[in-house]
Amino acid sequence: MITLKRARTLLTATTVVAVLGSLGACDNMSRRDRDTVIGAGVGGVAGAAIGGNALSTVGGAAVGGVIGNQVGK
Description:
Pfam families: Rick_17kDa_Anti (PF05433). With about 70 residues, this protein is mainly α. It has helices spanning about 5-20, 30-50, 55-70. It has one domain (about 5-70). It has three helices and no strands.
């Protein structure tokens, strides 16, 4: 049986591998695309910190993505 500590460690390792693997996809992005992705990431984190639920996380990511897209104009 898997313990809670072991499950958290496994989840953390899986997340790190997924993030590192996805960095290669950003290689040929335009500056505007990259700013949109960064804005969505920051907005999602901020939404999760403020609201603490899935709806605020998604809302923050959407707003952050729009702001990131428009900043580079």
